[in-house]
Every structure is written in C-alpha cells, then in structure tokens.
Design a protein that fits this description.
It is built from 16 helices and 2 strands. The chain is an all-alpha fold. The protein folds into 2 domains: about 350 residues, no CATH class; about 40 residues. The chain has a two-stranded antiparallel ribbon with strand order 1-2. Helix 13 packs antiparallel against helix 14. The longest helix is centred in the first third of the chain and has 29 residues.
Amino acid sequence: MTKNFGITSFFLIMYILTLSWSSVFRFNAWLPIYNVFLFIGIFSFIFSILINNTKKMPKLLIFFEDKLIVIFILLLSLGILINPNTKSFNYFLAYFQVFIICYLFARSVIIKKLSLPTLLNSNTAAVCIVSVFIIIEFGLRIIFQFDIHDFIPSFKEKSMAVVTAGVYRAIGFGTEPTQTGFYLCSLGPIAIWNLYKNIQINNKLKHLMSFCVFLSLIFLFSASAYIVIFLTLLMFIILRWKWRLKIFFRVLFFFILISYLITLYDPLYQIVLDILETIWGKITFTSDGTSTNARTSLLTQGLNRIYENPIFGIGLGYSSSLDESSSINWYVFLMSEVGIPIAMILFFYMIIQLIRIYRSKIDARNPLLFGAFAGTAYLGTLSTFFYPNLWLVYIIYAKIILSEKKEIL
C-alpha cells in the first residue's frame, strides 16, 4: 500500500539514512543526529493525531512476545529500588528510551507511515553511502595523509586507531570502527539483498556497490566484525545453505588468488601480515596492547560480578556510578547489573525474533536472518546496546510480515 508522504515520513527516512551517524553532527553524548530525526518524526506524528480526530494511535504491541519488553522494563524499575545508585534512574531512562520509544513506538510509526519499498530503499541508500565514505576516508588517509574527519563536526575526538604502523582504521560516521562494523553487519545484508531484488539499476553498478560494502568492512579492520561474520556464515552453513562443490571451489580459488597476488609485492605482504597478527591478537586476547588487557580485565570483572550476584545483580548503572568502563560484552554487562532472571527476559525476546525469522517463508528471510544473527552476536563484543542497528532489523521484519498479511496498524 502506498503511504502518504509528509513531514513525519521525511524525518523517518532521515532517521534511517543517518542511522550509522553516531559521531558526526552529534549534539551531545546522549543525542546523536539520527535520534533527533526520529523524535521529530514521532512528535509530528503525535501532533497530526491530536489535530485530526479521524486518526488513532497505532498498536504498540504487535507480536505476543512484545509483552516481554514491557515486563523487562517494569522489572528494571523494581530493580533500581532494590539496588539503587546515583546512575540507576539515568540507565532506566536509557533502557526505556531505547526499547519503548525508539523501538516499540518507533516501529509502529515506521510501519504506519513508510511503505515497504521506501523502508528498504532508505536502508540500502544509507548502507551504500557509508560504505563509499569509508573507502574515500581510508584512501585519502593512506595515499595523501589527509583525514576527512578534520572537516566534519564530530562529537568524538579525532581517531588515531591504527591496525599497524602507517595504516589507520577507517571509522565511517561512527564513534569507532567497531560501532560502524555493527551497523554494516546488521543492515548490510538486507541492503544488498534489496539492491539486487528491488532496485532497477545497471547490474554493473549493483556489483560495484556490493563490492564497496565488502571493501568498507575490510577497511574498518574490526576484529569484532570479522568474528561476527565468521560465526554468522558458520550458522548459515549449518542451518540454511546447501553448498555445492562448484561454489566451494570458486570461493577457495578466489582466496588463493588474492593471497598469491599479495605475496608478489613484499611491502604489501609485510603490512598484511602485521594486520593479521594484530587482529588475531585481539580475537584471542593474546595481544600485548593496553586495549586488549583492558577488555580482558573488564570481561573477567563482569563474569565475577554475575557469579557473586546472580539474582539481583549489582544494580543498574553501578559501573557508571563508579566511573568504571563497561564490559565489552553487553550480555555480561546486563546480567552483572540487573541479575540473570531479568536479563534473560530480554534475551528470550531476541531469541524468539531469531526463531521467527528463521521459520518465516518470506523472500527476505536469509538477509534478515543474517542481519539479526550478526547483530545479536555483535552485542557480545560491545556494551552499547543503544545503537539501534539490530532493532531496525526487527522493524524491517515486522513491516514485511504485516505487509504480506495486508495488515495496517
């Protein structure tokens, strides 16, 4: 069904287009530009309902498991009464904003105001834009020693992250390469699928844009992204793909050819070896860098706190109240602060979403499953749950399901 395009639709599209912009044009630590667009879109939608008596608020709870999120938020409110600290209420508001306003309510508004092609095409455009930007950013830094971020307003200080001597990591529009990798791993597969399935452009351009997405992931040099992609591909091999020997040999030949070409130029070969050694050190926690040591220490601390306080946790926002860094694993972080029972309610919701997508019969099942699994796995490598990449995957799935059933909120 074609949606009427208006102010609300415009700001919702801008929200999707800027979803990876967690650093650039950011107002403050809690207000990235994409949330500004989302809030304006939501407010304009509510305002249109108030002045038009024929309209009504869309359903907030679409699927039966949505009640788990409401239960999770209610238990969080009780949890901060049991284990209060100076940051408890702030973190409760953060979870309420992310899951009630920016997920459940935003999902209803997006489904109501955006057509499925508009939603999918906006995501594809956003992924292609950030991928091309990453390639340009990396190329300018390597070839001309020119940092394009010096000329873009950004909340975060200039990134000096290097993967080896003289090779800087691209960061895109995000706060760090890991965050941008989270975005590309979650929404990139859906963007590429829609590019080939629904967008009418030259095939050569489609191949070029897909290659840009692939290349941008390489230039991030994110160990988290590589781990997540490997695990997701492994999951697909086990659950979804029926491999043909011909396809296997093509992939094997491609990697052998690339490896051989790299060895022909010794300076490039040495750089690649240094890069692989750095990434392997981060993956296995064997690197001597301060970053790896800090990550290991924080993860160990989070696990110890779960062991010591398995039921109620140490209190929501406790780590922040002590000015401690969060665990690199959001699942560990959440369980350590609110306890295993409360955390498992939200985790069950995520598991149900994966099962729903896996058992669905929609055309976009594979890219949605890839994005949902990758996004879920990625939260095991960072603690910033408030970046809405995975939640948008769920929104796209809900929109597709309701569109096929011809249901309108």
